[in-house]
Amino acid sequence: MALRAVWLIRHEPGTPLGGTVRFSRRYPTVEKRAKVFNGMTYVPVPEDGPFLRALLFQLRLLDDDKDFIERRDGCSHLNKTSIYGLSVGGEELWPVIAFLRDSMIYASVPLVEQALSPRPPLISISGVSQGLELLLGIQDFLYSSQKNDTDLHTKLSQLPDLLLQACPLGTLLDANLQNSLNSINSVSVTQPQKQPAWKVGAYKGKAQISISITETVKCMQYGKQDIADTWQVAGTVACKCDLEGVMPAVTISLSLPTNGSPLQDIIVHPCVTSLDSAILTSSSIDTMDDSAFSGPYKFPFTPPLESFNLCHYTSQVPVPPILGSYHMKEEGVQLKVTVNFKLHESVRNNFEVCEAHIPFYNRGPITHLEYKASFGQLEVFREKSLLVWIIGQKFPKSMEISLSGTLTFGVKGHNKQPFDHICIGNTAYIKLNFRIADYTLTGCYADQHSVQVFASGKPKISAYRKLISSDYYIWNSKAPAPVTYASLLP
C-alpha cells in the first residue's frame, strides 16, 4: 500500500500547455518496488511535462483537442471512476487517479503489487483507495480557510514538509494534513508515551464517540416479465472518536436482527487492527445460504483524530422498500399516465422526505393537466415539463397509493426545454427520492452497550442511522404492472 508519485496541476485554458504543474513528488523506493512487482508490464512514471500533456489529453482539457478518438471517447471506454490509463511514450501508465476540482487537477499513481496484464480488479489494489484519500486530504487542506491566491501559494509551499509526515516514503499515514501542520508548529514538552508515526497530535477534552450508519438503496424496476428488476444496498459506517491518550483502543460491533440481510463485500479502514476471517470472505458473488455470516461484526481499531469511515459494505435485501409501476400512453395530443406505489410492510413508515419526480423532458411545456392522486400533493413545473408528487412523511394504512392523470403539451422550444435522450416512450421513467431516519434496510445497527473502549475516561457514545435513495427508478412498462411482491421473492 504505497504511492509512486503525486501531482497538483493548475488547469489554465488558453495557455500553450493548457496547465502548470504546481507540485509533484516522486518516491524512488516505491518505483523500484513497482519495477519488481510489475515485471515485463512495468511502465515508468514520466517527467512532469509528458505527464501533464497526457493527463490533459485523457481528461479532454486541451484547447486544440476537439476530435473524436476511439481509444478515449468510444462507448467501450466509458469511465465510471476517477481511474485512467495514460498513453506516454507508446506505453500505457495505469492506474492513474485524477480528478478536477476548482481548476486544480489532483493526480497520483498507486503501487500495484502484481503484474498489470491482464489488469487486476481495482478492488484488489489497496493503493487506489489510499491514493484517493491522500488527494482528498490535500484538497481539504488547500481550500480550508483559503481567501486568495497568496494563501494557496503559502499552502503549496508547505506541502513538501507536510507530506514528509503524512506520507513518508510513499506510505500514507494520515490524510489530514492539518494534523501534520499542527505537529510541526507545536513542540510537545512532556510525552508520557511514544507517539506513533501515523498519528500526529493528541486529543484533549471530553471523551465521546459518534457512530453513523448510512445505507443507500439503488433500484431499477421495469415492470416487465422479460427484464428482471434489480436492487442493492450499500452502507457506510462513519466514526468520530474523541479520546484522550496516545493509543486508545476501541471495538465497535455491528449487529443484525434475526431476519436481517447479511453484510457483504466489507472494506475496512486501515486503522482496524484485526478482523474475523468470515467477515472478509463474505462476498456478494457467493451463493446466499443459511450458513452466511450474519454477525455480530466486530471491528477493533485505534482511531485517528479526524472523522473517518470505519467500513463500507453491500447487501442483497430480498425486496426493495418501495415497489412501483408506471404506465404512460399517448392518445392523440394527450398523454395518459398511471402510477402505483406500495411500501413494503417491513419498512419503517416514517419518512423525512418522500417524493417522486416524473419528467417529460422531450416535450413542450405542460399546458393542461387533469389528475387524481389518492395521497399526497402534486406540484407542476410547467416550463420544465416536470411533475413532482410529494408523498410526505407517511404512506396511508393500506401502504398503497396511486396517481393518474392526462397531460397536454405545448410547442417545444429549442433552447428552453430540457432534453434527455432516454426519456422517450418506453424509456420514460420516474425517479423516487426518499430518506428515513433511524432506520436501515438491512436492519444493521451499532450496539452502543457493546462498544469497548480502552482509554482514560468514560466516553459518551451516540449512534445514528438512516436510509436514503440513490438512482431509484421506475421505468415505463407497456402495461400497468400489479403491485405485488410475490414475483420478487426467491
Automatic annotation (TrEMBL):
GO biological process, one term: protein transport
UniProt KW Membrane keyword: yes
Location relative to the cell: Cytoplasm, Cytosol; Late endosome membrane; Lysosome membrane
Any single Pfam family the record assigns to this protein: Adap_comp_sub
One GO CC term on file: late endosome membrane
Keywords: Cytoplasm, Endosome, Lysosome, Membrane, Protein transport, Transport
MHD domain ranges (all copies): 206-476
Major localisation: cytoplasm
Membrane topology term: Peripheral membrane protein
Top-level taxon: Eukaryota
InterPro entries: AP2_Mu_C_sf (IPR036168), AP5M1 (IPR039591), MHD (IPR028565)
Subunit note: Probably part of the adaptor protein complex 5 (AP-5) a tetramer composed of AP5B1, AP5M1, AP5S1 and AP5Z1.
Biological role: As part of AP-5, a probable fifth adaptor protein complex it may be involved in endosomal transport.
Family listed: Belongs to the adaptor complexes medium subunit family.
Name of the featured protein: AP-5 complex subunit mu-1
